[in-house]
Write a structure and sequence with these properties.
This protein is α/β, with parallel strands linked by helices and about 250 residues long.
């Protein structure tokens, strides 16, 4: 019996209204102003060049290893490059990280079907976990609070806290443990075949791929494919039934 639903964040529940590159550039400009107030005169161009270099290095590393590089570690390295002595646990680094991600957080918006979907799942008694690949758990939690959906989740699992990224089994297992359910009692919903569906399938979870553009996806190893979150509820209701009474 399905007792819990694990849900991806970006491109599943939320989307960016503005191009991410423009938002990061805005964050770098805010960081330059903040550092100026702290007595460090660096141009936005200088900061942007090194930040982009470090971000690309982190992306290549985590793609190869599935080890998450925390945003605060990357920002500490950024400041160190310019001779600013700061470690990942220091207030200067945390505030710098917050400023870089702030434009992205403020630009995030829910898909039209997300809020009603979460309300329905809670009303139907499912345990819910958000499971997201993100370098900044601070940014994700701020976004959840700003959008008013943090209250729906019984657990929030973010790769920067786990230290590993989806599709690592450890990320999914941590969410299941937090909800106190077995893999066979949970469904994972996400938009990435590689990170979400294949990862959840590795530990024998049921999966639903959200493909907002088309339900025709190849290759497809998911148990179901939907184009809207509204289509998920009938599938879950069907899976609740005894096998003999199920459709499909």
């Amino acid at each position: 019996m399905i007792k819990a639903v694990l849900i991806d964040f970006g491109h599943t529940l939320v989307k960016q209204h503005t191009d991410e590159g423009k938002l990061l550039k805005r964050g770098i400009m805010d960081l330059a102003e903040y550092l100026k107030l702290k007595g460090y005169r660096l141009t936005p161009n200088e900061l942007e060049h090194v930040e982009n270099e470090l971000r690309c290095e982190a992306n290549r590393f985590r793609e190869k290893t599935l080890i998450e590089i925390k945003a605060v570690d990357r920002i500490a390295a950024l400041l160190n490059r310019f001779g600013i002595p700061a470690g990942p646990d220091e207030a200067l680094v945390w505030e710098s990280s917050r400023l870089i991600y702030k434009p992205l957080v403020e630009d995030m918006m829910l898909f039209q079907d997300s809020l009603n979907f979460l309300r329905t799942l809670k009303k139907d008694g499912y345990k819910l976990a958000l499971v997201s690949n993100a370098a900044s758990d601070q940014a994700i939690r701020e976004a959840l609070n700003r959008l008013g959906i943090a209250r729906f989740f019984d657990a929030i699992i973010i790769s920067s806290q786990v230290g590993l990224r989806k599709p690592s089994s450890a990320v999914f297992m941590k969410a299941l443990k937090a909800l106190n359910v077995k893999p066979g009692e949970a469904v994972f919903i996400g938009d990435s075949m590689k990170d979400d569906i294949a990862g959840a399938k590795k530990i024998s979870m049921k999966t639903i791929l959200l493909s907002r553009r088309s339900a025709r996806v190849k290759p497809n190893v998911s148990d179901a494919v939907v184009t809207t979150l509204a289509d998920v509820v009938p599938i879950l209701n069907n899976w609740k039934k005894p096998k003999a009474a199920r459709k499909g």
